What we know:
The protein is built from 2 helices and 7 strands, in the order H-E-E-H-E-E-E-E-E. Helix 1 (3-14) packs antiparallel against helix 2 (38-50). It has helices spanning 3-14, 38-50; strands spanning 15-21, 31-36, 62-68, 71-77, 82-84, 87-94, 97-103. Strands 3-4-5 form a 3-stranded antiparallel sheet, with no helix packed on it. Strands 1-2 form a two-stranded antiparallel sheet. By secondary structure, it is of the alpha+beta class. The two termini are 35 Å apart.
Amino acid sequence: MHLAEKWENALIKTFIQSKMLNASKGPAVHSLRAQADKQEYSKEMRKTLENTPNLTICQKEITKLIIEDNICKGVETVSGSKYFAKSCHFGDRYIFECKMYIWERWLNIQDRTV
């Protein structure tokens, strides 16, 4: 099951209401918006991800990127633990908080320092 299907299943389980946006305009701009219970959706997705095979979830403060040949091959945490992956994806969720997602492909990082 792909992640998009897991999002859809979690939405169906926690669904509150839906609304058609731009309904007074032409069909090309119509857009269906679904609303889910925020806390229940979060619980459902966390349960889904925690039960996903070959996926480990951890929350750590990253202090160093491990870069070899201009490729990020892993990270080092504040405790000194090192995590290596075929690919690293970084995204910010809040202004001062950074999240790392590890995928199956290499991510080239150029001129990046922590």
